[in-house]
Amino acid sequence: MTKDYSPFTPGIPVPIEFFMGRLAELQTLTQKGRAAVAGRIERVFVSGARGIGKSSFCRVARQILAKEGMLGVHVFWGGAQTLEEMVRRTFEALLAETRDRSWFGKIKALFGRHIEEADMFGLTIRFRADSA
């Protein structure tokens, strides 16, 4: 699909009906989400030209998985220069998405024994040193 014929505009979500030709890809992406919840390490990269519908595609997948009780966040990593910056942006997105929930309990369950401290307002996340 070329941008000339694309219904997608960056920053403007579109309805799921626009993804009828991408149902197999949506199914693959949602299966990866379910597999991650089941404990398998999954990675997904969505790439394409600007305005082709990448963000909208991922938003639809997040909506499908949210109906199954899963949490997904959209993190912009553009311009991040360090791993620490990527982690900070990821935690900010997690905190923003879970601000009305028991966020520390969810993060603690996600990272288990590795988190020593978490502070919502100053976004302080301190990981324990490996004891191995």
Textual characterization of the structure:
This protein is mainly alpha-helical and 132 residues long. The chain has 2 domains: 72 residues, no CATH class; 56 residues, no CATH class. The protein contains 4 helices and 2 strands. Helix 1 packs across helix 2.
Summarize the structure.
By secondary structure, the protein is mainly α. It has 4 helices and 2 strands.
Multimeric organization = single chain
Low-confidence stretches: none
Principal-axes shape call: globular
Structural classification: mainly alpha
Sequence of secondary-structure elements: HHHHEE
Number of discrete domains: 2
Largest sheet: 2 strands, antiparallel
* Share of helix, binned: 25-40%
* N-end to C-end Cα span: 50 Å
> How large is the share of residues in beta strands?
5-15%
Total helical segments = 4
Q: Strand order, biggest sheet?
A: 1-2
Rg, nearest Å: 17 Å
Write down the overall mean pLDDT. Answer: 75
Please count the beta strands (DSSP E, at least 2 residues each).
2
